[in-house]
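quick one, two chains, predict together pls
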Amino acid sequence: MALLKRLAERDRAVLPFTLDGQPASGLQGDTLLTAVLTAEDSLRGSDFSGEPRAGFCLMGACQDCWVKLGDGRRVRACSTLLEANVCVTREPGRSL
Amino acid sequence: MNEAKNGAVSEAVNAPATSVASTVIVGAGPAGIRAAQTLLAHGLRPCLLDESLRGGGQVYRRQPEHFKRSAKALYGFEAGKAESVHTTIDQLQAEIDYRPETLVWNAESRTLDTLHNGRAAQVPFKHLIVATGATDRILPVPGWTLPGVYSLGAAQIALKFQGCAIGQRVVFAGSGPLLYLVAYQYAKAGATVAAVLDSSPFSAQTRALPALLGQPSTLAKGLYYRAWLTAHGVPVHQGVHLHDIQGERRVSGVSWQQGNQRKNLVCDALAFAHALRSETQLADLLGCDFAWSALNRAWLPTRDAAGRSSVEGVYLAGDGAGIMGADAAEMAGELAALTLLGDLGYRIDRARSIELQRQLAAIQRFRQGLETAFPFPEDWAAKAPDSLIVCRCEEVSAGEIRQTVAEGHWEINRVKAMCRVGMGRCQGRMCGLAATEIVAHASGREVACVGRLRGQAPIKPLPFGVEAEQ
């Protein structure tokens, strides 16, 4: 279920992408974080407990919103704009 | 590269020929943009490096280009200032070497290491203005790693930059001017604000009034947000100690202590912070001297009244060298640029420089008033339970930090080496301050006496397989 709620700027082009292999969509101008969290409620699992995380600072400092892209890059979802047809994979994290 | 355009400005005989690359500014917020503008006005074309997509910094964070909300809708009372800063960077960018989306991750012997689009490059400099800004100052609370919990700055960015609220029913907590501003912005944008939980007691704000009256317009705005929230039925509670944030896989509620009472509220999102903390890693790598600032409750790079750091050719401006806010950042950026130009032998308007220093001193007095109005909750460490996750990167708990102190360690870098608090991917940006508070409390020392968490390159994580520019 969605974490973020859109309040404004809803009249934008729809961009399709895939999330964990499933079809998804966001709006042009969304960050990856916005595109994922307006449909889902987490971005990654913690590396130490596997507990869900959904970013925290949104300004590129906390490093808690990393996701993996189809080309192998790992990026901060808060600082990366959504592009059409990008493949986003959420990493489940690990437990100790 | 191009030599400096001198125009009507005379340059002293011994001033170095200044090329685009030799004067560098890090950070395109209010300080960095005003610094760039001032340098350019004197015929010196700087290189301006900024991690963001678009200039403006966090406070005047811009929405993506095709978004339609007005500056008034986004920045409220500060719309004029925001537009002025944005117009300035738009006009400057063709005339300077402006590099957005560029991370500066190291500084060594007059060279900055940068990363842009996965490619590493080196930017040599002779003169540098460091305007690295700030992030939220976080005092963790049980449950703060749950999805739906964000910093106050994050909540504001979600709204300004993305047109989103962090949830359906949002609680704002902590203290500082941003607390009421963000709650107001959310309510105004149509979000449901379930409550504002201010850790500072009302009496503190009354006590601070004399100092706050020095900046009546800023005070008036603060009072306005507060009154507006009350008038629109948003509950505001003061003297609150956050107890915990509840939820299984996301936020479902919050509980707090107010006097002897425990209170609960259902919510699906919570944003919190206790004012801001300076981003000082770069100044650290540059070798700048640091001193303890009781006002900021932090170690800060020292600067003289004109903006010079202890390192020749390195100048400091804006919140990155001590929290003073956006207006002060604009002034400090201009001032640091004037000082740099004067040191290079350029003819500058000395009266302007003195006036800027006078205004900055007045803001500093106001800042003292804010600290009285929104005091740091000094009992935070004593109240933090052992199970509290302090470091969210590596999930190091308050109890583990206390155990490390019990083993005889009290110097923060040593504690970091022993239990890894502050060693994760954020490099202590989120937990460093909280860890220091716990170490100080557990070891019976003043927070100024447990050392300073040192910066290390790369100051932010780099991806594997970075290509180097040839």
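The CA atoms of residues 44 and 91 of chain A lie 5 Å apart.
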